Each structure stands twice: as structure tokens, then as C-alpha cells.
Amino acid sequence: MELYYKDLISEEASLEKLVDDLMLIVQGADEFVRAAGATLEGPQKEEITSRLQRLKERCQRVQQQAVASALAVDKVFHQYPYSAVGFGFAFGLLAGRYFKRRS
Question: 44: closest CA among 59, 29, 33, 53?
Fold first, then answer.
């Protein structure tokens, strides 16, 4: 038996928000590099542009991993809905007990 709650939380909305946030970070870094790079010359400018390129690549990897993880979790939740709810409930109880003890 599979349970579907499509209207509860939109998968696309949370993934789109993550992608938008990552793209805003990269765009801000790109603008910063352009502003800082205007006054720099030679190896410093090359280093900044290479680091920006690595940042863009890492953001794309994080985006791909987030999508893959979300799809894997969705698949597990659809295969074992009652177990997922049980584990979530148990985790919530343990987390509540832990934070109550710390207070």
C-alpha cells in the first residue's frame, strides 16, 4: 500500500529553492570577483577566477547530490511509509529528550 501526499509539501519547491540559493551564491561570488578583479593583475586575478570556477563546479555537484538524495528518500518513503513514520517519530522523541536535558 502506497500513500501519496502530493499537496502536503511540494518536492519541486524545496529543490528549486535550494538551486536558487546556490545560484545566488555563485552569482554574488561572480560579481565580487569582477569587482575585485578590476583592480588586480596577473596571478592574483587568475587565482580568483580559478577558485570561482571550482566554486561553481562544487555548487553543481551539491545540486546533483541533493536531487539524487531527495529522489532516493522519496523512493524509500513510498516503499515503507509506516516504517518511515515510525523512525521519524522515534527520532523526534529522542531529539526532544536530548534538547530538554541540555536546557
Answer: 33
Cα-Cα-Cα-Cα torsion 84, 87, 88, 89, nearest 10 degrees, comes to 120
Q: How far apart are CA 34 and CA 81, in angstroms?
A: 49
Please name the residue that has the C-alpha cell 500513500: 3
Q: Which three cell numbers stand for residue 74?
A: 522519496
Can you tell me whether residue 8 is helix, strand or coil?
coil
Tens digit of each residue's pLDDT, the chain (103 residues): 445 555 445 555 666 677 777 778 778 877 877 776 667 677 877 887 788 888 888 878 887 888 888 888 888 888 988 988 898 899 999 999 998 888 7
The CA distance from 50 to 46, in Å, is 6
